[in-house]
Amino acid sequence: MHKTDYYKTLKVDRSANLNDIKTAYHKLALKYHPDRNPHDKTAEEKFKEATQAYEVLKDAQKRAQYDRYGHTKKSSPNTQAAITNQITAWLKGLFGGILMIVIIETISYLSRLITSTAIQIFQHYVLPKILIWSSITILGGIILAYILYQRGSLDYFLEKLKAFFIKLLLFVLFVVCINITRDSFHQRGSHTTHNTSLSKNPTGASRSSAQLSSTRLLSSSKN
User: Fold this and answer.
1) If pLDDT is split at 50, 70 and 90, which confidence band does 212 have?
2) What is the rounded CA–CA span in Å between residue 123 and residue 118?
3) pLDDT digit string, tens, across residues 142-200
4) How far apart are CA 123 and CA 112, in angstroms?
């Protein structure tokens, strides 16, 4: 279907400003309005064409696109930019998700490594020093308590000393629990390894039991 030029429809020049376009549209709308022209198909078509032309020409962006491309629908620069931005956002989301997974796995591995290393350092280096300094602290506390007792200001010191010993006791219990847990895991691992070796080599176990029984028989026959 052939479409009439919007400027010709509104009977204005291409250089017409927005006020001229509004005035021309209002004149045509009053002339061809369906209420003034009932049952007139030609007037109804003229009214629709004028309204469509006015909707395009009153918008600066649509008017510029119409002036450039006419009635042919082509992708405007804004549409192309929107498609490009959408593709870019999708790619960022895809690679961002992969990068986030890599970062999480790396952090998890580093946290496990740091935790195991810290436990080993604590058990082999820090714990003996803590025990030594705790003994020195206790001895120094006893000496200080005696001095304060002689000076008559022992109550405040005893409160502080009580709080210190409670914290020290809790810390020692924590270390003991860690050592017990570690030993239990080692014992379970050794038992599992031993049972696995026996299950893999049952003939060796039966041979050793047979040799033991034959040795007992020989010793009883000699007697």
Assistant:
1) low
2) 9
3) 776 666 666 666 666 677 777 777 888 888 888 888 878 777 766 766 656 555 555 55
4) 17
Residue type, 107: I
Residue 107 falls inside a structural domain = yes
**Structure-block tokens of residue 125:** 């280096």
How many Å apart are CA 31 and CA 177, to the nearest integer?
A: 96
Mean pLDDT score of the chain? 75
Whether 218 is in a domain gets the answer no
Q: Are residues 182 and 106 in the same domain?
A: yes
- The angle formed by the CA atoms of residues 132, 134 and 135, to the nearest 5 degrees, is 65
Q: What is the CATH number of the domain that holds 70?
A: 1.10.287.110
What is the rounded CA–CA span in Å between residue 218 and residue 223? Answer: 9
Q: Which domain holds residue 53?
A: 6-74
The answer to whether 92 and 84 have CB atoms below 8 angstroms apart is: no
Question: 67-97, pLDDT tens digit by residue?
Answer: 888 876 554 445 556 677 777 777 777 777 7
Give residue 62's identity as a one-letter amino acid code: K
Residues whose CB is less than 8 angstroms from the CB of residue 20 and which lie 6 or more positions away in sequence, other chains included: 12
* Local structure of 153: helix, strand or coil: coil
- Same domain membership, residue 13 and residue 63: yes
Amino acid 168: pLDDT: 81
- The tally of domains found in the chain comes to 2
